[in-house]
Amino acid sequence: MMMNHSLKSQFKINQGTVIEGKWHHNRYTIVKELGYGANGIVYLAQCRNQQVALKMSDNGMSITSEVNVLKSFAKVQGDCLGPSLLDVDDWIYKQGQISFYVMEYIQGPDLLSFIQQKGPSWIEVVILQLLNNLHRLHQNGWVFGDLKPDNLIVTGPPPRIRCIDVGGTTIQGRAIKEFTEFFDRGYWGLGTRKADPGYDLFAVAMILINIAYPKRFNKTSGDLKQLIFMVRQKKELQKYEGVILNALQGKYHSAEEMRNSLLQLNQARPQSKATNRAPNSNQNQARTNRIVVSRQTHLKKKKRGGFLETFFIFLIISLLYIFYIYGQLV
Amino acid sequence: MKTGTLKQILLITDGCSNQGEDPIAMAALAKEQGITVNVIGVMERDEIDEKGITEIEGIAMSGGGVSQVVYAKQLSHTVQMVTRKAMTQTLQGVVNRELQHILGGEKTVEDLPPDQRGEVMEVVDELGETAELEVLVLVDTSASMKHKLPTVKESLFDLSLSLNARSGENRFSVFVFPGKKKEVEKLLDWSPNLGSLTSIFSKLTTGGITPTGPAIREALTYFKKKRSLRSLLSRDDESFFEESV
Ligand SMILES: Nc1ncnc2c1ncn2[C@@H]1O[C@H](COP(=O)(O)OP(=O)(O)OP(=O)(O)O)[C@@H](O)[C@H]1O
Ligand SMILES: [Mg+2]
Q1: Has A200 been annotated as catalytic?
Q2: In which band, very low, low, confident or very high, does the pLDDT at B228 lie, cut at 50, 70 and 90?
């Protein structure tokens, strides 16, 4: 897009350039560019023998906004929410002033490259890890927003998935700040752009689809039908079909629920392996249906519980009323 | 802190105006009236038109808004992004003026130490979520835009999807230019979403000329009409008061 290009051309920071902060006077030596996107450029830099990632943007507001999120993450134990924040400052150069922040450098390939290198057996592992991270994030009142493979780095060893780029991270209940169409449920006509956990879980399903279609694909009918069709087209997605469909339709209320559903998939597998080793689409179909059905019965149970509750309340109120009338008569 | 309704014109065009007032002057006029003008240039892969781009950037700059030139395919994502960005920009301006009140002088957020900017940004975020917003969409339907109109329609749906995820109220209206008889024609009156647009959009005929300047001027009166209606009412109240005294 235009904005990055103008920032990029205006900003060819050479290797070895020293960036000194106007306020905190820390000095960062640029090593190389790590990547760029809609919100700025990220460099690998060196500061007192430590490797750091430095994000710069001609839009100071977006820097401040991301820093706010990272600061709030810092209050939460552990490091699964995002890169830790190290410094925020302005850099004065010949033509003006630009805002930047410095964060922990998360080394490793992005999710798609990692799966390509290591093979599909890692898919499940990293998705489970991701759902864990998301659960913590959601519990703290956030929604990641711009969830996509480019914003997921697998570090290690041992391999561990980390989220970067908190540009889309939004307080629950507000409008999603930033998103990428392919991973956005609004784009596929499957929900709003209000930040709730389901928004991220939809994106997780799309990440699974993206793993099977590394080049992604365009909207044709642009609805659930198209997505189901694309999922059924790929052998490697068969196993996850039930979970993907549930997530696409917003049936999971928390990342933990989706994670459990993914774990259950594994427990069911040894049996089916014993009866038939070859992946059989019919059988898989049946399994998928079972998952959906079991979920529906679960919901029904809940509903029945609700019915009983109402009945009891009704009973108690009627009894009280009878007593009251009786009291009035006597 | 409170802001009035944010008012925006969103101009979607693919090139140079060729009739009537200078659109850059009209955009400046809008800005004077507190209305931001954003422009999205929809290009074909092989038709990057320097003159058109200069005009697009000029209109947004003098209209205090944001501009972006895109290929039709990226339109949806861009329309919502530009609108949100312009909103934040306007709100930041409001907050900056407030800051100047508190801090005195020509201080802006950027003059604060980075550690103190966070709170200001939270205010801007909060306002962006809750502010009332009026977007008047102005679509260029000159002949060259004809085959881009389905994409434009889609991007407007997408825009209302994005903005309606906020808790603040939105009102949209859609105008096209050139119109059948006049320079500008109203397609959709102020409404909280753009859902009713489908049927109207497919019936659109496209014309040859591109009267961008007059279109902006006309759009302004549309915002004003509402305001003057309100002031008319309040004036009526006053005269009634005087009479009764
Ligand atoms: N902390 C980090 N450690 C390592 N690499 C990073 C880090 N932060 C960003 N990067 C790299 O820089 C790239 C761009 O960063 P980022 O996604 O933050 O930019 P952006 O402008 O927000 O992009 P987007 O268009 O996705 O919003 C990332 O895809 C990643 O490769
Ligand atoms: Mg990114």
Answers
A1: no
A2: very low
Q: B7 to chain A nearest CA, in Å? A: 19
How close is the Cα of A323 to the center of ligand 2, in Å? Answer: 67
A111-291 placed in CATH 1.10.510.10: yes
* Ligand 1 geometric centre to CA of A33 (Å): 10
Q: How many domains does chain B have?
A: 1
pLDDT at A299 over 50: no
* SS3 category, A143: strand
Architecture (CATH level 2) of domain A2-104:
2-Layer Sandwich (3.30)
Report the pLDDT averaged over residues A172-196: 94
* CATH number, domain with residue B155: 3.40.50.410
Beta-strand (E) ranges in chain A? Answer: 18-20, 27-37, 40-47, 50-57, 85-93, 96-104, 142-143, 152-155, 160-163, 170-171
| Residue A6 vs residue B57, higher pLDDT | B57
Angle between helices A111-118 and A197-212 (to 10 degrees): 40
CA A223, A229, A235, A240 dihedral sign is positive
pTM reported for the whole predicted model: 0.78
pLDDT for A178 beyond 70? yes
